[in-house]
Design the sequence.
């Protein structure tokens, strides 16, 4: 698996865990969560089981918005000297910081 594919799966898995945690904290069953997210129950089962297949990053971010989460995304492509290293991959998602905060009124 390419490094950027691995990193993309890592981000998706982290988002799935956040969604799963929100579902559990609200004591929602899978049908309730499915209605809130606008998907069918098997998709919620996939989320609960940490299966990223079939979920784009865009779709997962949309789920977070439906769960009233605030999403801050920052991307850094420069080191402290302001230069990009020649061996630094432009596809490396390690340079993306994703901060997700639950809103007060969930």
Sequence:
């Amino acid at each position: 698996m390419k490094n950027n594919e691995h990193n993309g799966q890592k981000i998706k898995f982290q988002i799935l865990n956040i969604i799963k945690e929100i579902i559990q904290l609200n004591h929602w069953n899978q049908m309730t969560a499915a209605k809130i997210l606008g998907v069918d129950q098997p998709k919620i089962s996939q989320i609960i089981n940490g299966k990223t297949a079939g979920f784009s990053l865009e779709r997962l971010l949309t789920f977070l918005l439906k769960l009233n989460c605030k999403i801050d995304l920052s991307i850094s492509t420069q080191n402290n000297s302001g230069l990009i290293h020649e061996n630094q991959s432009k596809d490396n998602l390690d340079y993306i910081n994703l901060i997700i905060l639950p809103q007060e009124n969930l």
